[in-house]
Amino acid sequence: MSLRLMWMLAWISSVGLAQVFPKEEPRPIYWSSNELVAYEPLAHAFVMKGFKDGSVKAQIDLGSDSKPAGFSDGVYWAVNKLSSTKPADKPIKRILSTRDGKEWKLEGWIPLTEDIDVDLIQPLGGDRFLLMAFTRIRIGERYSRFALATRDGEKRLVPDRLLDMGLEKPWGIPRTEGSLAGHFGVNPAYNELFIGGYSILRSGTFLAVVSLRAGYVWLLDAGREHPTLELVRVHSGVKDAFLAGEPHLEHCVLDAHPTSDGRFLFATRSERAVIFGAMHHPKPVDITSMKDPIFKTDRAVAQILSLRDEPDLEWYELDPMAKTFKSVPSPPGVPERLVKPEEIKGFRFWFTSKGHVACTLSTYVPGEPVAVPGAKKAVKGPR
């Protein structure tokens, strides 16, 4: 065994090896005048708190079978899947709304098929909705992960326009049983794009879909008559050529939220950390002599070495109007470097009642104690 390999194993043992992915479920937040609405995954509930005093104003239970789909103008939105008891009937995806959590109103529904594989629905105002697929949406011979839909008189959501994702290659491919990618109908050139999860951020009329792994962000302005997607990247050096998964990218976006002034705040790893494997391990590392099988992947090596060599925690603001990212200073009390893999997996940040940013790594917050927000467990929700 080489000296470099022996040193590497010793260093790995000293910090502990933890899989950085997948991260825990995102916690989207929404601003409403003097209140802050946050979705708490452990409670399956929206929680509205007074921004100045932190007091809980409302808790809207979704239940474990529903996903949050937004909050605006006093209305909470949720999406769930309804399966039929008849084998011949297709399952449907529904979007519902409520103002008080007591009564949920059906706003729209769409049958799920092989070519309309909807995972999430976002309201865009009036009878317009954004569809986001688990794999892909097909209209004619074209594919995308995103489509616009119009609600008809029966509240059925009818896809009428695919949205261009701004990628260099097509998102979808014809379905075949010859490969896993072919089975799902997704171009294997983009294996890494959503495998690390995604977040949906909303601020005013702007909606941002964030690929947490790659740092690709799709912006949509629902206030436009004919909305389109605009692709922006946290790091310009992360290109489509890195998204096939050989080698793997490191996780880019650790957390992201809208701010009270209409921008989006991102906590990320550095560009060099994200593409560390591509720079240092373009081919799988020969580690066949290792006894422990957990180390026998180039991914494990790249994860540990990228944290050692590229530990920086960076912060950026995205201006949705200008469609540009700007580097911003680290919030007070937040370390500028990551030390352990667990800090990456469990990282999240939030806004305190005095307008400061606190996170899971905060050592202090100006003028107030640090406390991780939570909510009681809830089981009820839209039916």
Summarize, please.
By secondary structure, this protein is mainly beta.
Structure overview:
A 4-stranded antiparallel beta sheet has the order 1-2-3-4, with no helix packed on it. The chain has 2 domains: about 1-25 and about 170-375, no CATH class; about 25-165, Lipocalin (Beta Barrel), CATH 2.40.128. The protein has helices spanning about 5-15, 180-185, 270-275, 275-280, 300-310, 340-345, and strands at about 30, 35-40, 45-50, 55-60, 65-70, 75-80, 90-100, 105-110, 115-125, 130-140, 140-150, 155-160, 200-205, 205-210, 215-220, 230-235, 255-260, 265-270, 315-320, 325-330, 350, 355-360. The protein is globular and about 55 Å long. The protein has 6 helices and 22 strands. The protein is mainly beta and about 375 residues long.
Helix amount: 10-25%
Q: Between the first and last Cα atoms, what is the distance in angstroms?
A: 60 Å
Global morphology: globular
Structural class: mainly beta
Number of domains: 2
- How are the strands of the biggest sheet laid out side by side? 1-2-3-4
Uncertain runs: 1-23, 284-296, 375-379
Strand content: 35-45%
Strand tally, please?
22
Helices, by number, come to 6
Q: The biggest beta sheet, please? A: 4 strands, antiparallel
H/E order of the elements?
HEEEEEEEEEEEEHEEEEEEHHHEEHEE
Mean pLDDT: 82
Cα radius of gyration in angstroms:
22 Å
